[in-house]
Amino acid sequence: MRREISVLIDRRGRVISVSVADAKAAELPPLRKGETRLSGFHLLHTHPKGGGLSKGDLSALFLSRLDAVAAIEVRPDGLPGNVHLAHLTPPGTVGEEEDWRVYPPASPAEMENFDLAAQVSALEEEIARSQRTREAKKGRERAILVQIDQGEVDAEERLAELGELARTAGAEVVYRELIFRRHLKPGTLIGAGKLEELTSKAYHEDAELLIFGQELGAAQAREIEEATGLKVLDRTQLILDIFALHAQGVESRLQVELAQLRYMKPRLLGAGTRLSRIGASGGSAAGGAIGTRGPGETKLELDRRRINDRLSFLENQLKEVAVRREERRKQRGRNDVPVISIVGYTNAGKSTLLNAFTHAAEEPRKVLAENKLFATLRPTSRQGFLEGVGPVVFTDTVGFIRDLPTDLTRAFRATLEEIGDADILLHVVDAAAPGAEARHAAVTRILQDLEIGDLPTVVALNKADQADAETLEHERARLGGVPISAHSGQGLGQLKNVLSQTLEDLQVRREDAEEAARLERENVKAALSRPSPNIPWVSTD
């Protein structure tokens, strides 16, 4: 035939399948793979043109966790030539070929003396021992990060931010890779070859999680999972997990669940009418005759209906919460107390600054402030005092992030709209982090989307004690901000003076506007009270 013939054999020597194809394209049944054992199958195939094991052979060995893969050269007379054999190596093996061990070519007679069963048994024992050792040391999920660079200037910053998101979610990042791709592959984004490299890295780093910085479609995530055998998350799902992990208040939990359901709904998988609850199995109903109810709801339809019902319930609950929040805002308005909303990129130090302003060093007034992204998920208000102004209310808001998932933007829009009731905004920028300019622009864009970007704004360049002097001066000149350190208290006095002056100027403008409006009303009233002049009648004839 001069074609490759592949035979899959189990450990009892039974032939499971025969196919005419190369090893990588050989038809394999569902393989039983686990963390501490191999699949239990040995792939034997011919090489009509001779030569050793190909890259595809070794990839099939690794990705399918086969016991072994062997290639038999076919001589011109049709008899078997040398046999090439390879099997996996335990994770962490140091050598030229880390994933597998390739034996020197041997004749069929020599291979008869090779005890493959003993070799596989020893290999599984070594894999199990390595797994037990890693489990004893491992406390968190180990993750590999993938950020695709399509020519963005901030690709490295995005990869670093993805690492912070993974850390906040509780994962341990063991490897991260920035992959340049001008054009993405439709199914896997980065191609089969790069996925094999990442699978190999995950095998040796004992990682079970693959996190992409790009949003993945449902079909893309499934294809990548099938190709790698790893759990796959994208940036959107990672952010949703963080919000679910940190949500504390009733409103935060409702908003997070709402966003999760909206994200999940288009990604549901159905199995057709074979999962129908009301099926017709015989008689006139078998063909869907008149008077029957047809196939009924499929599992997919049932899941979607349940999600829709839950979405409606959550939206009604959030409307009730919004009404109560509106009442609290009106109460603050009747008290005529100025409100300062603290906004900024996540982990810029907003909560730490709120604690510093309100001297809330201990519970219950102290606001949670951690070196994590999205530590604050609901608005928190505390009363403070500014010289020359008197009592003011500082409101800490949820942190912003670039490319905030659409589902989360909708879920948290009501929370973010509370910023619009502020008299002024205090925009906190992390001056010590790279890409401060891009983060400032991302927050400004979100404020403009909420139609509150025109509010008077004071910029605070936080973490000035950790920032490079030249960079700090550049940001100060560009943004006109006040260098501070919320942790040490540096510059807080100057920032309070700027806030006081801004509120006083705002009050003066309001009084001037009210005076102008009063004069306008008086002029209109006076004009209406004057008698109309006698205008002679002019005929048009």
Automatic annotation (TrEMBL):
Name listed for the protein in its UniProt record: GTPase HflX
Start and end residues of each Hflx-type G domain: 338-507
Keywords linked to the UniProt accession: Coiled coil, Cytoplasm, GTP-binding, Magnesium, Metal-binding, Nucleotide-binding
Location in the cell: Cytoplasm
Example of a GO MF term: GTPase activity
Function noted in UniProt: GTPase that associates with the 50S ribosomal subunit and may have a role during protein synthesis or ribosome biogenesis.
InterPro entries attached to this UniProt entry: G_HFLX_dom, GTP-bd, GTP-bd_M, GTPase_HflX, GTPase_HflX_N, GTPase_HflX_N_sf, P-loop_NTPase
Organism: Deinococcus detaillensis
Domain of life: Bacteria
Keyword set includes Ribosomal protein: no
